[in-house]
Design brief:
The chain is an alpha+beta fold and 119 residues long. The chain has one domain. Helices cover 27% and strands 28% of the residues. The chain has two helices and four strands, in the order αβββαβ. It has a four-stranded antiparallel beta sheet. The protein is elongated. The relative contact order is 0.24.
């Protein structure tokens, strides 16, 4: 009876630790230009921040070499006015991919909105 209680206690602690790791490894960072107007898209009816905005999504896996510490992505260019908002998202799956490949592969999920050109 005592060993089954110990097993149950260890299982609960293990599941709690896995749950905490999953919650802390999922996050997003959004940088926004408050002095600009976003490029409109009347057909975008998403219920979140991007409703009515023309979004560009980059969802890919990049490969890093051990000697390189940074990477460069080429995205669809915005006008000369720049970017209205930029969101970088990290998911649990992306963290696990990076862990299993020892940091050589990373999942990148970027959503950005360009600034509206004044006509």
């Amino acid at each position: 009876m005592r060993t089954s209680n110990l097993y149950l206690k260890r299982t609960c602690i293990g599941l709690l630790l896995i749950f905490i790791v999953m919650l802390t490894s999922c996050y997003s960072v959004r940088v926004m230009n408050k002095d600009a107007t976003p490029e409109p898209d009347p057909f975008n009816t998403s219920p979140d921040f991007y409703k009515g905005k023309m979004t560009h999504v980059l969802d890919t896996i990049i490969g890093l070499k051990l000697v390189e510490g940074d990477f460069h992505l080429i995205v669809k260019p915005c006008s000369n006015l720049g970017i209205y908002s930029f969101e970088y998202r990290v998911t649990f799956g992306g963290v696990m991919l990076s862990a299993f490949t020892f940091g050589k592969k990373r999942k990148v999920n970027i959503t950005y909105v360009c600034v509206k050109e004044n006509n």
